[in-house]
Design goal:
about 450 residues; alpha+beta; Alpha-Beta Plaits; Chitinase A, domain 3; Trigger factor, domain 2; five-stranded antiparallel sheet; four-stranded antiparallel sheet; elongated
């Protein structure tokens, strides 16, 4: 009779020994031999008439091993299903027991497996978390900047005769030279487009009135500053902080002068920006833009708050892991085997993600958070309508429901949408349990926080 014995071999690490007698696998072995004899195609024998002895001689050892292993796995998973230990992944075999197997001398055998157990842990009290909600105040300058960006994006390019505006776009060619303007052999040569306002104020004045065909020799470090110098260095193939390259000389030749003629602020433009909103005046456009910008930065603030929540839960939740088991699983559990060194290097990030998975699963289960089919469909509908709405496909959206029906049959699509929505619900619930302090910050400060932490 098959049995399973369980003993502890380490922290959250047990060994399962599955013992089976020959009576547990011999009947199925004999049955398989007979089935093979009825279906095997062997030269010299009619199909279905191959002697069982011939099948035993030719395929017996392989069939025998398969049936023993099948009997072991059946007993192992019956035990796991009945006892329901909280384990990571699948049991890992501790040793190869195939040397025990002998078709000609069937006997009782045992196989050892290792299991890693999930730890018990407590979620820290969220109302004790010291969190800050960083808020951005939307200013008129921010609205003006966005309107200017949209006017330029929707404008048309003109070609003035000479440089006369900080917004001029200059098509130029760069040729590396010495300080006297003599081309350097093997030096850099490149065509580029540069906004006049990217040059230093002094250089902008010098360039005013220049036309296509005009040229001058300049030094990068004295012609561009700050992030514009870094950008030019990278455009020319250098590292952005290469001081030696910044001191190089180049001959710049203007090949074309351009200027984007901004779109006029009229109803046609308003309808392109916000189709179907009925915006008729610049004031209404500014109000709509301000509201949109406020919503964007409110969402960014909450994302950053959720990042703080993530770190609080990760840092304040005490949890232990069966490290030796998990590192072994990392070596053997993936599509490609890994070395012990690779598993060791990957373990910190892997254990951190594992910790978050256990925390989030517990929060979702304990607080009965769920996503139903209606919510999945609604989210997909909003995403599709938003995507196709940008393409101005008109008001007839009668095709939308059948499109959503097809999306709901795509397991990957449904799974991705579910994960997005359940994660959103999880963080929204966690946020509702906290009392963050508000702090005014600039957009640059908030963006810097997001760059430093992203999960």
């Amino acid at each position: 009779m098959a049995t399973v014995e369980r003993v502890n071999i380490g922290l959250l690490n047990d060994k399962l020994t599955v013992k089976i007698s020959k009576e547990d696998y011999l009947p199925s072995f004999d049955k398989k031999l007979k089935e093979y004899s009825k279906t095997a195609n062997i030269p010299g024998f009619r199909k279905g008439m191959v002697p069982v002895g011939m099948i035993r001689k030719m395929y017996g050892p392989s069939i025998f091993n398969d049936e023993v292993i099948r009997a072991v796995e059946k007993q192992l998973f019956t035990y796991l299903n009945d006892e329901k230990p909280e384990i990571f992944a699948q049991p890992l075999p501790l040793e190869n027991a195939s040397s025990q197997l002998d078709m000609n001398n069937p006997s009782d055998v045992h196989f050892d497996f290792e299991i890693g157990l999930k730890p018990a842990f407590e979620i820290p009290a969220l109302d004790k978390a010291k969190l800050t909600l960083h808020k951005v105040t939307v200013t008129d300058d921010m609205v003006n900047e966005e309107i200017n960006r949209m006017q330029i994006k929707g404008g048309k390019m003109t070609e003035p005769e000479s440089i006369d505006n900080p917004e001029n776009v200059l098509n130029v060619s760069f040729v590396e030279t010495d300080k006297d303007g003599n081309a350097v052999e093997g030096g850099i040569s490149k065509d580029n487009s540069v906004l006049l306002k990217y040059f230093t104020p002094a250089m902008q004045k010098q360039l005013m009135g220049k036309k296509a065909g005009d040229s001058f020799v300049f030094q990068l470090s004295k012609t561009f500053e700050g992030d514009k110098l870094e950008m030019m260095l990278q455009d020319l193939g250098f590292e952005k902080d290469d001081k030696a390259a910044a001191d190089k000389y180049f001959k710049l030749t203007v090949t074309k002068v351009g200027l984007i003629e901004k779109r006029e602020l009229n109803e046609e433009f308003f309808n392109e920006v916000y189709p179907g909103k009925g915006i008729k005046t610049e004031a209404e456009l500014r109000n709509a833009l301000k509201e949109e910008i406020e919503k964007y930065w409110e969402a960014q603030s909450r994302n950053q708050l959720h990042d703080q929540l993530y770190h609080f839960l990760i840092d304040e939740t005490n949890m232990q892991f069966p490290e030796s088991f998990l590192k072994r699983w990392l070596q053997t559990g993936g599509e490609k085997p890994k070395t012990s060194e690779q598993a060791e290097a990957e373990f910190p990030a892997f254990s951190n993600q594992l910790k978050w998975t256990l925390i989030s699963d517990k929060l979702i289960t304990d607080n009965k958070l769920e996503v139903n089919e209606t919510e999945l469909r609604n989210h997909m509908r909003e995403e599709v309508a938003r995507y196709f709405g940008q393409m101005n496909m008109g008001e007839d959206m009668s095709w939308l429901e059948s499109y959503i029906d097809r999306m709901m049959k795509d397991e990957k699509q449904v799974d991705a949408t579910y994960r997005r929505l359940i994660t959103e619900k999880l963080f929204n619930w966690a946020e509702s349990q906290t009392k963050p302090k508000e702090k005014k910050v600039s957009t640059e400060e908030l963006v810097a926080m997001q760059h430093n932490h992203h999960h």
